[in-house]
Amino acid sequence: MLIARCCMGVLAVLLAGGALAEACFDRETESHHFVVDSHLHFQPFSGRSLDHLKLVDYMRDAGVRFANVYGIGQTRIEDWACLQHRDCSGEQIIKPTMKNDFVNAKNVTNYFQRDVRLTLSMTFPDLQNPEGILTRMNILDEDFPGYFQWIGESNVVKQALFNMGHEPATLEDIENWAPFMAELRRRDMPLALHSDLGNDDEPTKYLHLMEAVLERYPDNTVVWMHLGMSREQRDMNPEDHARILRRLMERHPNLWLDISWTVLYDYYFSDDDRRPYYVDVLNSYSNRVLTGTDMVASEFSSEQQYERLVELNSYINRFLDDRAFRNIALGQSYFDLLSFDVEAPAICD
């Protein structure tokens, strides 16, 4: 059962049974904060992670009742040496690993939560070297059958990691995804991709990579993280960006948009001149839009930090029409994507 109630200014959602909510949601008195954190890294890029149950408490206190449990697909290989106070001054290199997925799965299975619903995601795939992905998926399935319902966040191109050995996937790499993409279709499993659109010097430098993915695998559910934005692209023309998003959403009905990460708030959503272009896009395609904080939960992550990320990443919800607010802020699009027996409350007249 999904019950909406006012609790310290945020929407509290409780899970039990399978009936639908009867009360409507009053946008005048209730919070605009989202209830689904579909982009939450329970494991950090480097160093020790935040205690699993403590992070769940952060979610609960913030009114978030659904989350995707991400690791970090590519971590620093010097990680454990640094923790042992060894010399870490050398070149920083990233390397894909399954470690995070095993840790997350063990935590989720050991600490079941009745009032917070967690969806496990496989974050190990190395999309530049896809040959072993299907084998590794099967390894996780053997130990945790049926638990993983998502895959990603995986990097097609992430400019922030270029100085750590990361390179963009090539068109040949994308073609070689075919075996595991077929398996994702069979499982109806979404694939979340970090794929930078470009940068301030070349705004659409990497757009062809996302287009290649969508053209080659039209029947796969693909989630484009952060609308393709990054800290390397702070000055994208919002009209041009909105036009690209609309074109791809119209042409590819299995494409979904992720609006997590404060880079969107900092450079686009908080700007009164830029924001309307994105509100129009989100209102138009709200049934294929997902929310999240993109928090990377290290041992030093505080509850105040999580609450701040919920606030900033929920900011644009204030400006959505009622249909989009229900789909995005109240999570109906996420529930539909994962076929959850849960329904968001209707918006009060």
UniProtKB/TrEMBL annotation:
Source organism superkingdom: Bacteria
A GO term for molecular function: hydrolase activity
Pfam families from the UniProt entry: Amidohydro_2
Keywords annotated in UniProt: Signal
Residue stretches making up the Amidohydrolase-related domain: 129-311
Segment forming the signal sequence: 1-21
Protein name in the entry: Amidohydrolase-related domain-containing protein
